[in-house]
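[job 0412] stage=fold_complex status=start
inputs:
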Amino acid sequence: MATFNESAAGVYLITVTPFTSDGALDLDSTDRMVDSYLERGVDGLTILGIMGEATKLTGEESRIFAGRVIDRVNGRVPVIVGASAPGFAPMRELTLSVMAMGAAGVMVAPAPTLRTDDQIVAYFDMVAETLGADVPWVLQDHPVSTGVQMATSVILKILANCPTCVMLKHEDSPGLAKLSAIRAASARGEVRRVSILAGNGGGLFLPEELSRGADGAMTGFAYPEMMVDVCRAHAAGDVDMAHDIFDAYLPLARYEQQTGIGLAVRKHIMAERGMIASATVRRPGPKLSATDIADIALLTRRQQRRLREIGQPS
Amino acid sequence: MATFNESAAGVYLITVTPFTSDGALDLDSTDRMVDSYLERGVDGLTILGIMGEATKLTGEESRIFAGRVIDRVNGRVPVIVGASAPGFAPMRELTLSVMAMGAAGVMVAPAPTLRTDDQIVAYFDMVAETLGADVPWVLQDHPVSTGVQMATSVILKILANCPTCVMLKHEDSPGLAKLSAIRAASARGEVRRVSILAGNGGGLFLPEELSRGADGAMTGFAYPEMMVDVCRAHAAGDVDMAHDIFDAYLPLARYEQQTGIGLAVRKHIMAERGMIASATVRRPGPKLSATDIADIALLTRRQQRRLREIGQPS
Amino acid sequence: MATFNESAAGVYLITVTPFTSDGALDLDSTDRMVDSYLERGVDGLTILGIMGEATKLTGEESRIFAGRVIDRVNGRVPVIVGASAPGFAPMRELTLSVMAMGAAGVMVAPAPTLRTDDQIVAYFDMVAETLGADVPWVLQDHPVSTGVQMATSVILKILANCPTCVMLKHEDSPGLAKLSAIRAASARGEVRRVSILAGNGGGLFLPEELSRGADGAMTGFAYPEMMVDVCRAHAAGDVDMAHDIFDAYLPLARYEQQTGIGLAVRKHIMAERGMIASATVRRPGPKLSATDIADIALLTRRQQRRLREIGQPS
Amino acid sequence: MATFNESAAGVYLITVTPFTSDGALDLDSTDRMVDSYLERGVDGLTILGIMGEATKLTGEESRIFAGRVIDRVNGRVPVIVGASAPGFAPMRELTLSVMAMGAAGVMVAPAPTLRTDDQIVAYFDMVAETLGADVPWVLQDHPVSTGVQMATSVILKILANCPTCVMLKHEDSPGLAKLSAIRAASARGEVRRVSILAGNGGGLFLPEELSRGADGAMTGFAYPEMMVDVCRAHAAGDVDMAHDIFDAYLPLARYEQQTGIGLAVRKHIMAERGMIASATVRRPGPKLSATDIADIALLTRRQQRRLREIGQPS
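[job 0412] stage=fold_complex status=done
writing structure:
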């Protein structure tokens, strides 16, 4: 399988967590979801992120879900586990537990209380120490959810300080300039090169991020084949085809990125596609209206038509 | 001209404020910009909003710019002026001044410190009193910039309390459900019907907002013809054509909506199109890189091609 | 023992969580701390709050600590457990676990994402359902930590909707007017009377809160006897003595309320007083400087002198 | 008069802005307030700060008020003017205008949008350029109102970059460690020594700040003599007397620091003392209840009694 290290590339999909209609963990759907992602060609899975409703699970449920995913994947691709936590003790507990199950690494975002450059750098020194010398990890840069803005110089310092950090999930906005700056610093030999996967919601800037030097995508979307196909076309040098594919999915990807109901949209489509049994989002969470569902149906039909027009499977 | 009242419909464009390359107000470009907007068929102009860099102008500059726009428009369409201010005295001062020049009304967003429902309702009671009985105004609902979330019930109460509020600039997200709920309340006779213009950035949800009962759009984009053409196709009942036009512009509209550099992107394209002389954003503000500009060029070429494919002028 | 219900009164102390100098749970100090609080006459204990470093504990550690406190208290006073959590499943898991151990109830603050009145009311409907019909709970109103402002009308609605909510931990600021308004609503028969304990940091407004109708205090301070003695003097009708005692402790209480280092100050004093073995705050957390410690020593000496002057034990 | 430069020391009082009972600028009270402050021995005045309701004034009112204060002071002490603004053009406009009237300098806080260290440093480079080479200014460090946390290293860099910055208004919390660190850096010759005035609300940490090397206070309180007397006792080496005076005023100073109603409390007391004619706070602003006013009366009586006990004028 592809190894989770500084050379990782392709699509690491942010998975949802399937629930039954009464809100219980749905482990059968978990298997089905894993299979459907792998069939579509993803190169890794990232579980227990924000879109995985991680904070709504008990500790026990988190471990059961992680174990089920890792077992089902069975070594075919790396599985990364979201381990951000308000304290280091729970971060370490979850990390030890999932690494023992066979996870390839974990992902950590800065604590929302951090403000100054030095505070952020010091925090990740403690994170690296907490995770231990054997656990490779992803640095998640997502100011919209954390409120923490990490300057390029801060990210470079974290990479210099923490050899176990092998990947950046890049989802700052405006992030294209930052992505270019990090790659330029590597090119000048100022910092080792790590894997950078584009994380902006639903891959909404994926073609541009790939052109700036991203190695792929780490994000979620009800049509993971979009990310896979865009990355492959781009890797094959066909930038125009990468854009054509991206543009065909963009209206629906945009609709799925609505604040608040985005996850409900994603799970609705996944249930429609048979990837999970129920679209249930755990409370407190939104429900789609009939009009929302009609919107999605219209956008899906238009997407299929457009994909056929450009000669893509739909 | 179209009247600015509860029946207003179509596209009220959020204008930029043109500066010369050394950062001075560019009044010649102001004329040119007004002309170029009106030639493209907009139904109104909204000046001195966030994207108009209002807070970077002196009081005197605000009055000069407003006067120039109003003079150039010369009654052809209504001109609305952003009047949000941390205090009521400056709000009143600017309002009196621009109404005397011929503005059709003003736009006010909730103060960022407001939290509870009652605080918000009470605030707009004071706003209405401050503006006076003769000044029609737009209620701007933009939680991303204000941090204030107004429940549907709060908006209905403001409309009930303040007869001079004639329009809602709807840019909450998720906002489609709120838009549907407000229209349903009017349909049930619970509240008078006001104009609702869709304000989500760059019109990124315009087709869906029109289907939910929006009367048009109040937002900005370097291609205002997108909003005009989408609204016209939709009004003519051709929803599919509305989507086709929208989708053709969407990749560039999305690029223009990047946090931080969005306004620089918009002004760059407007300068390229000859709508203003310089793309200058006043300090502190971003500058585009050569790579950003190359991105825009690629997206613009693709947009033109796609517009031709669907039989639209490009 | 005093029952934890709508009639609860006196001082419910917010406890710290003692750690050894290498950061492990210190269960011997836990016993010593419990004893020292009870000897000083507190009427209840509240554990695993913000000042109890709850988010820095693993699930297992939380249960061990709660069990140890409850065992040591051995029914002499009610023990309340902080159960705020980003999701309902972990909230329910912790609640069931500590209630089975003998906790008297739990405490829940609004989730930081809540904004509108209806969102807050709906959230606590779900909280009450999650906790179940047999678990009495404290509503924590602490906007400084949550960012959520609950209007008086919202609190009254929560009390009306949720019969299992028996106590309000009142720590809004400005809160005196809110406290008066809630008591007035009860007096008018608009809402059942619940216990209100004053929670403003270190009891910094305790005399005024008691005069407005608070039944006591729920907060922390290295000198819990301050709250006990102020409440007793006030209950005995000697408002002036209540103020005298309060004023004697105020300079140090103020020093302990510094953002960021407050908990380190509290634990330092508690270690000095022999209530816990080590002043350790778990990482990431502050350390006191020699100058900080000198400040505390000076304030403590002055406090003792002043207490003697007014005839209080010091 | 005392010069406003890097050696400034003593008490620079943050003034209120007096309004008549119908909300108009009260220029007679402005004169009376200036006189009453100067009679109590303050060393400077700072106008148009947050507690001066600056954002509620029109540009014209700001200039009229500043002019009146400066005229009345008539060169006896330096007058500093709050010039923070969302844009540089209005900042420059106000600065030029008040400097021409005879202001000694201006005060600027970081824009609330700033996050990373480099952004903050770059911002103040632009501020210094905007103000010009002849305008000395105060750097205001008040994270509670701005949301911007400036690391010690950032402040040192600003002082290095901007020779016209001559004073720090220190009101971070926890700020004692920062204050010590800045003084230590000066002592080591790493940065020039500037004046540091303690700004924490109402001087609530004044004795400790003076011990850490603050040159005085820049804050407001209805009893400015507290700050004057504490600073004088401290400067005379009588730290214990400084604390005695401080402690006598602390219960009322604390009451005046309540979020939301603090300014109303301050203006109420000032009106009671005859320093201004009306306690009016401009809308939107709080009103005191009868119970609030009774609280203040009780605290004032106790304060007078305690001042007599320690041999101070009351």
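[job 0412] summary: The longest helix of chain A spans residues 290-309.
[job 0412] exit 0
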